[in-house]
Design goal:
CATH superfamily: Vaccinia Virus protein VP39
Shape: globular
Helix content: 40-55%
Radius of gyration: 17 Å
Structural class: alpha/beta
CATH class: Alpha Beta
CATH architecture: 3-Layer(aba) Sandwich
Strand content: 15-25%
Strand order of the largest sheet: 3-2-1-4-5-7-6
CATH topology: Rossmann fold
Distance between the termini: 38 Å
Number of strands: 7
Number of helices: 12
Length: 261
């Protein structure tokens, strides 16, 4: 049986399927296909078009970052931790050495119904709360690690342990991670789409330097809602989204940070 935290994967899946169908923000035919077949029941908040636009933009930002890094160093190994049913492996058209999509075993079981492994692409059932599996991964000079929509379900200690294990395994590492702020965590008690699947968040970070150590350093912050993606909306939708999801208040709730060793 899928855990409540795992069920949250259907929220971004729906969002990416919706924007793809509208032919804005993100092209994701796989999300359209999976959503049509899975037919998971979501509440009204989770099926908000505004949230869908936001989920599509967030995915596009992660895709762009990863694509740019892979073109810089095509011999990199990609680790997408908390992959859910995401089709980033198909959306990112860039060279890579190997790619591992990683999530809890119940999620990977469903994922394997829609994706096929190859010599370069593998799926692994493992928990981000544990780190033993990292030491068993193949060696590589460069690792690119994607943590999208997962940090808020972990603890500070779990994230630091994950960073530490990755740092120890790979000589060169770059990480991209989205995080809630502490204020956002408090706000989820009153209004958050994840309550539609009976899940809850546990952690928010206000200082990106919190996860630094002697080797891994904060390298930058990315916009969750790039202007060029907002401009794909029009009229009222564009104005409303910009005010409600890309304004100063929205930016105080949710961040994308990058780190580098």
């Amino acid at each position: 049986m899928m855990k409540n935290e795992s069920k949250t994967l259907y929220i971004p899946l729906y969002g990416k399927a919706l924007v793809s169908k509208k032919e804005i923000i993100l092209e994701d035919k796989k999300a359209e296909e999976i959503w049509e077949k899975e037919g998971f029941s979501l509440g009204r908040k989770s099926k908000s078009k505004w949230l869908a636009y936001f989920m599509g933009m967030r995915a596009a930002v992660f895709d762009k970052w990863l694509s740019e890094k892979l073109f810089e160093k095509p011999k990199s190994v990609v680790f997408h931790i908390g992959c859910g049913l995401d089709s980033r492996i198909e959306r990112v058209n860039a060279p890579f050495e190997k790619w591992f999509d990683i999530d809890l075993p119940d999620v990977i079981k469903i994922r394997k119904e829609y994706y096929s492994e190859t010599e370069k692409y593998k799926m692994l059932g493992a928990s981000a709360m544990e780190t033993d599996w990292i030491s068993a991964l193949p060696d590589s000079e460069k690792a690119l690690v994607v943590l999208e929509g997962i940090s808020m379900y972990l603890s500070e200690a779990a994230i630091k342990n994950l960073f530490g294990a990755i740092e120890e395994k790979f000589p060169e590492t770059e990480i991209i991670m989205d995080v809630y702020t502490s204020f956002a965590v408090k706000a989820t008690k009153f209004k958050n789409p994840i309550k539609d699947v009976s899940a809850g968040v546990s952690f928010g970070a206000d200082d990106p330097l919190l996860f630094e150590d002697e080797k891994i350093k904060f390298s930058g912050e990315l916009s969750m809602t790039p202007e060029e993606k907002i401009n794909e909306l029009s009229g009222f939708e564009k104005a409303f989204f910009k005010k409600m999801f890309a304004g100063k208040f929205a930016k105080s709730l949710y961040k994308i940070y990058t780190y580098k060793k």
